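Contributing new complexes? Match this layout with acetamide.
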Amino acid sequence: MAGFKSRGLGPWRVGVLFSRSGCTAVIEQTQLWATLLALEEINRSGGVNGREIVPVVYDPMSDPATFASYAKRLMVEDGVTAIFGCYTSSSRKAVIPVVERLNGLLWYPTPYEGFEFSPNVIYTGPAPNQNSVALCRFLMERYGKRFCLIGSDYVYPRESNRIMRELVRANGGEICGETYVSLRARHRDFVPVLSEIKRLRPDVIFSTVVGDSTSCLYQAYHDAGFDPRVIPIGSLTTTEAEVAAMGADVAEGHITAASYFESVRTDQNSSFVRKYKKRYGEDEPTNMCAEAAYFQVHIFAKALAHTDSLDTDLLRPAVLGTEFDAPQGTVSVSETYAHTDLWTRIGRVDSHGRFEILEQSCGQVDADPYLIGSGRVLACG
Ligand code: ACM
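Output block (do not edit by hand):
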């Protein structure tokens, strides 16, 4: 560990809110690990302006109200202004009033439904124009135009399905079914849903089932005798972490749209994957949510080196416009939206549980969280 020339100022303290328990722990644990890995890297090379960054970490247990109360504790009792955290949109929506009231800065590294802006959030996961649009086009071209939608019952799936419904209908397709299950759904909860889907005979299933119940959906699909080569599940949130939980035999053939897969070929990604596995185990894959959690800490540190202050009124303007060579490729934080311009990729799970990248954008796709621009036109995905 580097020695720190702290100039008598002590370390920088930051908050970290990712769940190690509860229904989205499988994916949030990876975001926690990636955040800590980036902080360790920065500290090992001397910290920021000679000061170590010290994380104050709580486990919000996948519960939005607990996220909000820890965010408040971080800001009021621990003296923190910058918080890295949140996976579900309900946890983000619970934390936003806290950071807005106390003028903090939430760094949010997760795909979400878009149609949101807060002056106290930096969004580093994809908005629908960076994943849903390409996924819809890909599924329609390869498999057909009849979609069944299945999601967890909260804001992200309902809003993502609203956007998918609009995209499908605007491009001559049809939604033949739409169902929601609890975030805590188990295998047996998916059995009647899948027998109804079988009866409806869609061309594809668009899933916004998230968290630990994801593996139950794919297992139930497998057990019901569906063939992913004929009717695949397309998703925006099924990552290497969920694939590892369900097993490659269950996941093979299914499709995900994301900015990042572990199989991305860049020098930055080789280094990220190597360090992540060395730190957390050779069997632990990286994934899109961990990658965003990792690169956002580096963007934060770059801005902090510039401002030498954690004051949100100074830090936020220094973050906007920042470019960074992330594992997925070069990304930049949009000055207009405080969302990140990211890559768009379509991956299919292979027999080893890795994502084979079938398509990718030629470069960063500008964040367009309100789908104002060309986002609704599938050909531009
Ligand atoms: C999510 O709730 N944004 C995955």
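Reviewers usually confirm one structural detail per submission. For this one: DSSP finds twelve helices and 15 strands in the chain.
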